[in-house]
Amino acid sequence: MIAENKWNIVAMEIIPKTIFLHVESQKITFSKVAQALKKVKGVLGCNPIDLLPTESREQHLNAMLSRIPDPIFDVDRNGVVISCNLNNAPIQKDNETFQDKLSIIGQNISELFAVNQEILVTPKRNALEVNFNGQLYLAESTPVIFEGKLNGVVIILKGMDAIGRQISMMQRSDAHQVDNIIGTSAKISLLKNQLLKFSTLDLPILLTGETGTGKELFARAIHEASGRKGAPFLAINCASLSEHLLESELFGYMAGAFTGAQKSGKPGLFELAHGGTVFLDEIAEMSGYLQAKLLRFLQDYSYRRLGGTKELTANVRIISASHQPFDLMIQNKVFREDLYYRLNVLSLSLPALKERNEDIPLLCHHFMKNAAKQVNQVVPLLTESALAQLIEYSWPGNIRQLQNVLFRLVALNTSNEISEEDVQKVLADFGAPVAKQILENVEEKSGGQHWLKVEDWQSAQYQFEHELLSQFKPVYTSTRKLAQRLKVSHNKIAMKLRQHKLNEG
């Protein structure tokens, strides 16, 4: 019948009980086709359609791909691009700009990405850093397997800033807003106002204060209140990594930069946080070499990856923090004075908890509520005498210690009430009993007369060593430097620090 009518069939698709025909319609109308088909035995009806099923699916697929912000490439088993979506990736090669994605189709990925195609066209999922259009991307390849054989791969390019945003989103919480900083004391209220003002100024900020005062919470609140809040916030503790690892984490490295490096290289925090904020906690623990390198970076925010030759730039805001006394560290040439002034353009000094003890009731309510939720029990009642004990305690570990104490009180509670005795018992587990601590505080205020009340020679020696090491450790931040200062062996200092529990924090 089709041959008798001399219809030109452009395409045909068949599914159960339905045949789709694309008939060239220059000389024939739908009505003529319908009349002819109705005469065929078994034809129940004939309806016009705009697109064949595969054409409709392709349009929907293209519409869906166009909404995905990352460039996507469909590649055959030979590494040739057969389809692509080029969102957020202006295409350029050898100074020749391609007009549309059709210029990319048919190209081999080894030419587009300057990598060996066998690295990406594999039967296993893979990720590799590639250079595309003069920019670095992370190329994630997913194999297309048909009847047990590799039929090609789908490659998605992710920009470094996009990866940084994903990491930051995993860490983001509503609790990082300024309004979630708990406290109504005069010092905290002043800090909140300063924080809001500083957030509008795109300048480096230095946060100082004792350990456990919430410096990272303030840093995140500054970021969330700033114009960079939609960009990544990435944090790193400078005291937790060796010099070499910290350098690679901050600046990244190229493939083969050192033994054990990833084959694809790795972007650093400055690269991942582009457009956002980098929080350098315990900045005073950074080595002299890295201090010099960070100072160079802060001059124009340009840097190179380890093992790389290309100059990169990062649009980031630096917020740093430390509990160390910078004046003594600069005086003893442990920390660079020029770097200190680069970091300390704006500064916030966070008060110790004992300096804002009027906020303790609010903090207790907040931490007890969170603790009860975690252990799945009712929030117990905190008696007035128990609260008074918590308010009078000096909290050497500040808010972090208060949070830990309250969690233990809630977790161990069986009577739905926390008494003064409960508080004293838990505080004793964290250090000296409350009564002894209060006595020691009184003795210290009496001009050193507490030495007259020592129990014996051994306890006096222990107390002397503890006070000596406590005073020197913030200035001489490594055991080796402290051993040199006191003219003893490195092993002896390490042993004494462990004995006095001063090797952490």
Can you walk me through this structure?
The longest helix has 16 residues, at 457-472. A hairpin with a 4-residue loop joins β3 and β4. The model is unreliable at 90-99 (pLDDT under 50). The protein has helices at 30-38, 53-66, 109-112, 117-120, 160-171, 186-199, 215-225, 243-251, 269-272, 288-300, 326-331, 337-343, 360-374, 384-392, 398-412, 420-430, 434-444, 457-472, 479-486, 490-499; strands at residues 9-15, 18-23, 72-76, 81-85, 92-93, 96-97, 126-132, 135-146, 149-159, 205-208, 233-237, 277-281, 302-303, 312-313, 317-322, 346-349, 381-382, 417-418. It is 40% helix and 18% strand. α14 packs parallel to α16.
Mean of the pLDDT scores? 82
Lateral arrangement of strands in the main beta sheet:
4-3-9-8-7
Given the C-alpha coordinates, what overall shape results? elongated
Largest β sheet strand count, sense and barrel closure? 5 strands, antiparallel
Strand element count: 18
Estimated helix fraction: 40-55%
Estimate the strand proportion: 15-25%
Return Rg in Å.
Answer: 33 Å
Helical stretch tally: 20
Briefly note the structural class of the backbone. alpha/beta
Span from first to last CA? 88 Å
Low-confidence runs of at least 5 consecutive residues: 90-99
Key phrases:
18 strands; about 40% helix; single chain; alpha/beta; five-stranded antiparallel sheet; elongated; about 500 residues
Write the layout of secondary structure elements.
Elements: E1 9-15, E2 18-23, H1 30-38, H2 53-66, E3 72-76, E4 81-85, E5 92-93, E6 96-97, H3 109-112, H4 117-120, E7 126-132, E8 135-146, E9 149-159, H5 160-171, H6 186-199, E10 205-208, H7 215-225, E11 233-237, H8 243-251, H9 269-272, E12 277-281, H10 288-300, E13 302-303, E14 312-313, E15 317-322, H11 326-331, H12 337-343, E16 346-349, H13 360-374, E17 381-382, H14 384-392, H15 398-412, E18 417-418, H16 420-430, H17 434-444, H18 457-472, H19 479-486, H20 490-499
Parallel strand pairs: 10-15, 10-16, 11-12, 12-15, 17-18
Antiparallel strand pairs: 1-2, 3-4, 3-9, 5-6, 7-8, 8-9, 13-14
Helix pairs in contact: 6-7, 13-15, 14-16, 19-20
